[in-house]
Description:
The protein is α/β, with parallel strands linked by helices. The protein has one domain (about 35-314): L-arginine/glycine Amidinotransferase, Chain A (5-stranded Propeller), CATH 3.75.10.10. The protein contains eight helices and 15 strands. It has helices at about 25-30, 70-85, 130-145, 180-190, 230-240, 250-255, 275-285, 295-300; strands at about 45-50, 90-95, 110-115, 120, 145-150, 160-165, 170-175, 195-200, 215-220, 220-225, 245, 260-265, 270, 290, 310-314. The strands form five sheets. Strands 2-1-15 form a three-stranded mixed sheet, with helices on one face. Strands 3-4-5 form a three-stranded mixed sheet, sandwiched between helices. A hairpin with a 2-residue loop joins strand 12 and strand 13 (about 270). It starts with about 20 loop residues before the first helix and ends with a strand. This is N-dimethylarginine dimethylaminohydrolase.
Amino acid sequence: MGSIDEKPNVIPGDKWFPKETNFEEDMPLYWGDWGVGSEVDDLKAVLMRRPGKEIENFDYDLVRYRDNVDVELFRKQHDVLTQIYKDYGVKVYYVEEQRDDRPNAVYCRDLMFMTPEGAIVTRPGMAARRGEERYVAQALAKLGVPILRTINGDGIFEGANAMWVNRKTVILATSSRTNKSGYEQVEYELKRMGVDDIIHMQIPSSNIHIDGLLNFASNDVAMVHASQVPYDVCNALRKKGIKILEAPSAKEVVDTLGCNFVAIKPGVIVQAANNPMCKKLLEDNGIKVISIEMSEFLKGRGTVHCSTAFLKRG
């Protein structure tokens, strides 16, 4: 047997050099076809929770529902929404497991926020919702979606308090459901991945999330509940060439969540029914509106956007 000097067994130096790519480039190679940097680019994959045992027996008043739900109708309405997504080629993945005492778990948008590099798992503000996020994290891990951060420490953040304007711009809100610590944790991740314009939005105490007050129907059209969205936010969007449509009915925005829609692709949205004035204004501005019954979702003060966690756009 020769000595080490006679038979050098070393790897050439360049084999040790790192692969100098960013995480977004690596995503399709090592993780899968995931990533979101828009609210309107073609929707390709979503994560949702079909109502399970958690809605079969609960005290609606304790969990911020308006009334008791019709269990089978709730599931049927959820199936109608997911079928629309599937008809447009969207892959629908489900949170298969959930706590039996969390009837709000259907509102998946609150439990994660998807970025071009992976998911931020949230930390809900309400005691009646905390713990739902564990099962979203479990579903993400099973799918192979990278989890960039779980909101921790004293941070509170819900996914509906962040909204993409474009790959470099995000509206990020503080409210009773997102405190300064949670905001700063999300802000750090966004800046690290190249978001250079974070528009802060202070949510009035009468509301909790961005998506009840402001939403994007296409790359250059947004609808807002004007009396509740700060001027600075609207002005920042206008400067980016976005046309601001003021929701014509406060009743629709509050009672039937006329702003809480999902863009399947630019200019095509799914919106809860019984929003005739909001629907007409959108259609008058070139937006195709698919209306669906969401009565049982609305009892939990959420609808289409609240129920849909994006996994892939564009």
